[in-house]
Amino acid sequence: MKFIPFVSLSLVSLSLYGAMGSSITIPVQEHLKYSFGNHRNHTVQKMEEKQYYKSMAPMSDEDIRNHLSGEGYSVRSIKLRDIAYELVYQVYVTDNTSKSLKLYVDPANGSILKEEIIE
């Protein structure tokens, strides 16, 4: 009985975002630990989650910022996220035509996995 809610939650997260194509996968136990439960918004838990994700990412925030700046983007904010068991950088940028975009970037090589226009 406990297996059914887990499966449905997994399917919901995959249907909302789909597979990003990141080269770094979050282990199931860590995904569940940092994604679900009342502790999710606890300060210590957030700090631990941030440190864990940074330890898994080969490229740092600054590396991604420099990489995207070299491609002509102006970076406003950057954050590591676990989306459907995949580690990605969620980056808010402005491109050279002044469009605001949300980019999902692979933390291993800096490639853009998905791009969304922000209205």
Describe the structure.
Keywords: Signal. Residues 1-18 form the signal peptide. It comes from Sulfuricurvum kujiense (strain ATCC BAA-921 / DSM 16994 / JCM 11577 / YK-1). By secondary structure, this protein is an alpha+beta fold. The protein has a single domain, classed as Nuclear Transport Factor 2, Chain: A. The chain has 4 helices and 4 strands. The chain is elongated and about 40 Å long.
Feature tags:
4-stranded antiparallel β-sheet, Nuclear Transport Factor 2, Chain: A, 39% helix, 119 residues, alpha+beta, single chain
Q: Helix and strand layout, with pairings?
A:
Layout: H1 3-17, H2 28-35, H3 43-56, H4 61-70, E1 74-83, E2 86-94, E3 100-105, E4 112-117
Antiparallel strand pairs: 1-2, 2-3, 3-4
Strand % is 25-35%
Just name the CATH architecture.
Roll
Task: Please work out how many helical segments DSSP would assign.
Answer: 4
Summarize the helix and strand pattern as letters.
HHHHEEEE
CATH class: Alpha Beta
Tell me the count of domains: 1
Helix content: 25-40%
What is the SS-derived class? alpha+beta
Q: Which term fits the overall shape?
A: elongated
Look at the structure and give the mean pLDDT.
85
Q: Which topology does CATH recognise?
A: Nuclear Transport Factor 2, Chain: A
Extract low-pLDDT stretches. 6-15
What's the alpha carbon Rg, rounded to whole Å? 15 Å
Q: What topology, given as strand order, has the largest sheet?
A: 1-2-3-4
**Separation of the first and last Cα atoms:** 42 Å
- Based on DSSP secondary structure assignment, what is the total number of beta strands? 4
Reported for the largest beta sheet, the result is: 4 strands, antiparallel
Protein name: PepSY domain-containing protein
Keywords: Signal
InterPro entries: PepSY
Organism: Sulfuricurvum kujiense (strain ATCC BAA-921 / DSM 16994 / JCM 11577 / YK-1)
